[in-house]
Amino acid sequence: MQTRAEAAPQDVRTPMDLTVLLDQGSRGAASQRRTRQGRMWISALMTILACLASTSPAAAGSTDQVHAALLEQLPGLQKDQIRASEVPGLFEVRLDGGSAFVTGDGKYLIRGDLFEVATRKNLSDVRRGEERRAMLNKLDPSQLITFSAATPKHTITVFTDVDCGYCRKLHSQIAEYNALGISVRYAAFPRSGPNTPTWETMEAVWCSQDRNEALTRAKLGEAVVGPQGCATTIVHSDYRLGEQMGVQGTPMIVLEDGGAIGGYMPPEQLIQALEQRFSPQAAAANR
Question: Of 181, 194, 253, 269, which one has the greatest count of Cβ atoms within 10 A?
Fold first, then answer.
């Protein structure tokens, strides 16, 4: 998976200091740094959970209290971005592309995923999947470029960039994905951001009368010029959706249940993963 350009524009990001902190942490670092941070995180988590265990109900907080406490640092934060987590006294704060856990008084924050020890289930990932699925259900299919399988078994939504090497590799095998019963829906995610050549090319693609043909040409490196006077907002809308889903690079494959695959996956490998994920046995295990 190829990551966004370093100079990604700021106008589509939530202007919050804390989200910058979360974003920086999510992009990855050297393995030694991750190890140190992991040890620090575990230590901090144990300390905070110990404090939570001894916290009185009155100090445990509520979503309203957490919201009020965080507004100074996060002036754009909405109440519906906060919910009580599975851990008493700990609240999850959902931000574009990331999440954090905050104590009821808003004084302490933990960045990272929440796991259920007994089942080893990543509860944060489950939550993100639910949110992605809800976003997909609200998505207007007309703003996507779809390459449909003749006999569809699965549908994937791919955030793509016409200049991304692995996006081009995926698209070069589009007939193979379709032949295996995988319909591919493309959403625009030019990593370079607005007012860049890639963004303008993708606007031209989405403005074209035959979007499928225009997208294929663009991914072959051919010039695509949209009709004069086209002022589509779809690219910006898709890009914003990608930000909300936490897309950090392309291709980003989103599954029907909200699950995500970060990066290219060959057709045969993808169909195996999909068949396994959506098998009756997997469905029963997830109940």
Answer: 253
Alpha-helix residue ranges (DSSP H) falling in the chain:
17-26, 31-53, 63-70, 123-138, 165-172, 174-179, 197-207, 211-219, 234-245, 267-277, 280-285
Q: What are phi and psi of 206, to 5 degrees?
A: -70, -15
Token duo for residue 287: 């109940």
154-160 vs 182-188, strand pairing mode: parallel
Coil, strand or helix: which one is 71?
coil
The residue count for the chain: 287
Question: Is residue 13 very low, low, confident or very high in pLDDT (cuts 50, 70, 90)?
Answer: very low
Rounded Cα distance between 247 and 235, Å, is: 14
Q: How many CB atoms lie within 10 A of CB 4?
A: 19
Q: How many Å apart are CA 105 and CA 55, to the nearest integer?
A: 10
| Cα–Cα distance measured from residue 68 to residue 75, given in angstroms and rounded to the nearest whole number | 10
Asked whether 199 and 193 are in contact (CB, 8 A), the reply is yes
pLDDT digits (tens, 9 = 90+) for 244-260: 898 989 999 999 999 99
What gap in Å lies between CA 108 and CA 44, rounded to an integer?
Answer: 10
Chain segment 115-150, per-residue pLDDT in tens? 999 989 888 888 889 999 999 999 999 999 999 999
Residue 186, pLDDT score: 98
> Cα 33 to the chain's mean position, in Å?
24
Contact status, residue 77 vs residue 93, Cβ threshold 8 Å: yes
Is 267:176 a contact under the CB 8 Å cutoff? yes
The two three-digit tokens of residue 105, written as one number: 């008084």
Euclidean distance between CA atoms 115 and 50, whole angstroms: 17
| Residue 50: exposure state from Cβ atoms within 10 A (0-12, 13-18, ≥19) | exposed
- Return d(Cα 212, Cα 127) in angstroms, integer: 33
The residues that are catalytic are: 161, 164, 167, 191
